[in-house]
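dumping this here so i dont lose it again. seq + smiles for phosphoenolpyruvate
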Amino acid sequence: MNSLTKDSQKAAARVGLTSDTIVIHGGKPLRGRIEVRGAKNLVTKAMVASLLADTPSILKGVPEISDVHVVSGLLKAHGVEITTLEPGVLKLDPSNVVSAHFAEIDAHAGSSRIPILFCGPLLHQLGEAFIPDLGGCRIGDRPIDFHLNALRAFGATVDKKHEGIHLTAPQKLKGALIELPFPSVGATEQVLLTAVRAEGTTELKNAAIEPEIMDLIAILQKMGAIISVEPNRVIVIEGVETLRGYQHTAIFDRNEVASWAAAALATKGDITVGGARQQEMMTFLNVFRKVGGEFEVLEDGIRFWHPGTPLKPVMIETDVHPGFMTDWQQPLIVALTQAEGESVVHETVYENRFGFTEALNEMGADIVVHQSGLASITRRVPRRPLEQAAVIQGPTPLTGASVRVPDLRGGFSHLIAGLAATGTSTISNVGIISRGYELFIDKLETLGADFELV
Ligand SMILES: CC(=O)N[C@H]1[C@@H](OP(=O)(O)OP(=O)(O)OC[C@H]2O[C@@H](n3ccc(=O)[nH]c3=O)[C@H](O)[C@@H]2O)O[C@H](CO)[C@@H](O)[C@@H]1O
Ligand SMILES: C=C(OP(=O)(O)O)C(=O)O
């Protein structure tokens, strides 16, 4: 709990958020237009990719979020020179990459999971890497066995120490045949960032194919890598000796778009999200429509609104892409508390991702979490041993309460619940939300929310 508070405060400070508690006077629809920029789940990895090159990279669309500050700190600790050319445009120069002191790496690692992705690039550049304890949202065990097994397959030695993990590559890393037990996003990125400069060919089976991964592959190709994405989750990478810097505009943040869309629905509002694109949001848009939300795809964004007619219950199964993303269920569940009937959300990616629903129940929701999942005859995603299910009965009026943000997406759902509820809500630990939502306080203001920071 304490470490979350510390992380939250650090995260808030990194993006200039001066308060860790927000008081919301709810019951007012959110209306207006906001913009999203590059995805947290791509930008941070693109920054790490710059380490693989021998010339500078230029990354555009970089959002003001604390995870970007964490990765900047880590890159700088390794000698990468980072310059902000204009707001949202970073130049990353890896000409003088050095080993960093473990204490310095540990101090920078903060609440992000990205340090693990430094392994491949550092092994190529320096022959060794230190990885501190990983942060990220506490939504289950979040092991790193797939990452370490993949690195071993490339020929790295992995030495687990009390303070973290020490990796070395006594010989040049070699291409490998790797099959992931689950299409993990992070482990797929680990393999990509390592294989591109390994000697020979790597074949990765059961790879994740999220749009952010495709964007990372596009960046690596710009750098000189040879990567083919084949059918059935197979990715083949032919290693090359050297890579050069890239120029790239990051893919938009799908998770942020889905969150504001859910906010429009839950508050009976009307929000246009500039920068959102249809192609990468199709699965979400289908569910949004089934719940009864309206949307219109514009030239430069997507408009989401509540049409004024009752919302409908749905069954959702979270899944890897192209399924319904696990990071989308939390904000949408707030809207489902207002649907007429019983909704079921099966969480199949992480084993502990419904903790945030306790606060919603305190606000008047009727959500029952089944920790071992629920049988259903209409399932599409094969049942996983770690899954849980949430059953949401609606509609239930929400009333203001004092709640504490547990994690990034759960935190955003608390904000939305406070905005949809009648009365006043006090939401603490909001700094953690700045890990993934750029300028969310300013955006709430733009959308006409009634709140103050304490
Ligand atoms: C920074 C970032 O991009 N975070 C995203 C990334 O997280 P992240 O990359 O951490 O998520 P993964 O796809 O790796 O995790 C999926 C599942 O695989 C398991 N697993 C993963 C690695 C491993 O070594 N061993 C193992 O068992 C995890 O515990 C989890 O149950 O993808 C998730 C799934 O889309 C998203 O929710 C996160 O927002
Ligand atoms: C789980 C998430 O992120 P991370 O992997 O950075 O903790 C998320 O973005 O919801």
